[in-house]
Amino acid sequence: MPQSQKILIIEDDRLQFRVTERLLANARMARFEVDWAQTFEDGLKRLLTGAYAACLLDYQLGARDGLELLREARAKNCHTPVIFLTADSSERVDEAAMEAGASDYLVKGEITPRMLERSIRYSLKLGEAMRELRRLATRDALTGLLNRRAFDGLLAEEVDRARRLGHPLALVVLDLDHFKTINDTHGHPAGDAVLAAVGKMLEGEVRTIDRVARIGGEEFAVLLMETTGEEGLAVANRLVAAVRGRPVEVAAGVAQTITVSAGVAGLPVYGEGEVVFMAAADRALYQAKNGGRDRAVLAS
User: Fold this and answer.
1) Are the beta carbons of 173 and 221 closer than 8 angstroms?
2) How would DSSP label each residue in 74-108?
3) Closest residue by Cα to residue 64 from 98, 37, 94
4) Edge-to-edge strands, sheet with 54-58
5) Mean pLDDT along residues 129-149
6) Domains plus CATH for the chain?
7) Residue 33 in contact with residue 7, Cβ under 8 Å?
8) Which among 11, 117, 203, 218 is annotated as catalytic?
9) What are the DSSP calls for 116-158, one per residue?
């Protein structure tokens, strides 16, 4: 027996909800567990939980319509596949639904169990493909960490949040020491192995609420939530020690000790914005490099 999939139906008409529910119950190849939201507000709230495999959304919801609901959900980064159900078969409605981010569009009165099941299967596969594209757009291919573009966006959001709420935030920028020597001596595959290993070490040393990114060739960044600059320096020292203490295999039977230098900056000391915040951490990183490498320095 196939595993059931949770489907949210947002429909203000109880009779129409029952019709759609029966259509789902008569599906041949899948089992569905159905939740019902009767209002715009309740539907949006449930959809934003991300708890559903797909959503069947009525085009008209009283004074507000499904297009508005879907636009609000997408603006809040909800990527649940949404299928519009409407009595209007006009091309105008079809185009508006697709532009708003719907994965499919079905006309009430023409829907069969097979058609609805096919639409849900198609929407789920499309959703998986889009999730993979989003992952590829935000992740570094070598390390699997956030890439520079994704990290810059996250940094701007978290700096803004920290400043508004008056919460601390720490940024650690790390650079591998003498990385060119590894590439020159052992080849670029060895260098790639070192970058992947260091990325994994860094991610394993921080909390799940913190974020690690590869922001350059051999440069990494760690954003430490609810953390002061002094606390960030302690974390950076731990990261430096962790990398130093775990030699990486760069060739068959050949392990090499890797070191990193780190610069740390903390909000609200650097409260002018994310650009100044990053610049402060970069300056501290240069101080760590000039001070002998294999160490962390707090911006002051």
Assistant:
1) yes
2) HHTT----EEEEES---HHHHHHHHHHT-SEEEET
3) 37
4) 32-37, 5-10, 54-58, 82-86, 104-107
5) 86
6) 5-138 (3.40.50.2300), 148-298 (3.30.70.270)
7) yes
8) 218
9) HHHHHHHHHHHHHHHHHHHHHHHB-TTT-SB-HHHHHHHHHHH
**Neighbouring C-beta atoms of residue 243, cutoff 10 Å:** 26
What's the rounded Cα separation, in Å, for the pair 243 and 199?
10
Q: Is the pLDDT of residue 75 over 80?
A: yes
pLDDT score at 41: 93
Would the pLDDT of 90 be above 70? no
Structural contact between residues 43 and 19, judged by C-beta atoms closer than 8 angstroms:
no
178-182, 285-289, 291-295: the lowest-pLDDT one:
178-182
Active site residue 219: no
- Are 98 and 105 within 8 A, CB to CB? yes
- Token look-up 């006309």 returns 107
Partners of 253 in the β-ladder: none
CB contact set of 164 (below 8 Å; sequence gap of 6+): none
- Take residue 231 and report the two structure tokens written for it: 């606390």
